[in-house]
Amino acid sequence: MDLIRREYSTISGVYGPIVFAQGLVGVSVGEMCQVKIPGDDLRTGQVLELRGERAVIQVLEGTRDIDIVDSSVLPKGELATVTLSTDMLGRTFSGLGEPVDDLPQIIPEQVSEINGLPINPAARDKPNLFIQTGISAIDGLNTLVRGQKLPIFSGAGLPANELALQIVKQSRVSSGEEFCVVFGAMGITSRDAFFFREGLEAAGTMERTVAYINLASDPIIEKLFTPRIALTAAEFLAFEKGYQVMVVITDMTSYCDALRVIGSARDEIPGRRSYPGYMYTDLASLYERAGRIKGRKGSVTVVPIISMPEDDITHPIPDLTGYITEGQIVLSRAMHRKSIYPPIDVLPSLSRLMNNGIGPDKTADGHKELSDQLYASYARGCDVRRMASIVGEEGLSDLDRLHMQFSDGFERTFIGQGEGERTIEETLDVGMKLLEKLPKSELTRLKQ
What we know:
alpha/beta; Thrombin, subunit H; Rossmann fold; six-stranded antiparallel sheet; elongated
């Protein structure tokens, strides 16, 4: 224990958010430490890597004023932890888990390490219960299921934050069950933080929400802690307290950019587009914490938001995310320009667990057939629309015109529902009324 608590005045270099220290004994990777600088200022750090007795330490509050002569490192002998309690509900914290709502510290029921572990595959329970988001394009065609990880792929200027807030406000589970939301934001502006807080309070849903907010002005290292702290809180509420928990994390692109900055500071060999080669593993360590556990009442459902640079869905961040998660919700710039909200493009969107969460006892009888028919008819209408842009509407048949009219109406009424909320019954009714405008011979996916 004396070795662990020893103070080392052996800092050999400072590079960006990284401090290099020599001769550290009895220190492990991931261990927290304090960096003491002149003036008795203490900053929190974490050991990222050990190269023999040389330690690579990331400093959470930044490395300004740290020098290699008068500064020192004091290992704490413990990993990063967060204080947990049901009193978290209704509270707002920083990206490091410190209260920022002018209320006192919570009284801990449990203190947990933030890294966590993926759920043991043998202990996983099948995600097969419906979560109603109140958004037709999701509930009707890309159904969200408890324990699923379903990302939202967005682009610069698209209303991803508005959609995330709407999902948080409107999400419902079966009556009699306790439902809550853990919200984690990374690299957002003060204006966006105000938008989320005001929106949750105005909707009256703040009392069932825990918010961890990292601002763009906060140290970049903090972005690596925020999603882990949010997921640790979600696991506590779900598996210890029995809540059905939805975790909304925005924006994973900020998280991956922080990984790239840290990797560069550590002189790592870069991978695709300068991102670390281990980014897939790192993202999986976060996303795979979603799920249900056999014998436990609660569940953790993760909805991460990814901003696609230049709307490129093949960019490493959405590309790797798509491999790990069970589908994706894609926002469309073309629909946004048409003032359609939410601008969800249902054709590239997908929920791989949808079939597990729908049916007579969960949503409605015939939900799958109706969903397939809406998708097929809309895809046909989009094909006709593209053909009309080449040959003109005069070259279309009467049936082609009906399909094009259907696709226009589908975008305006089914997808473009605005900020209002729809039950699953209302969603399916809107879809069925749209299909009634097509000849019965075209409704080949419906049994009746």
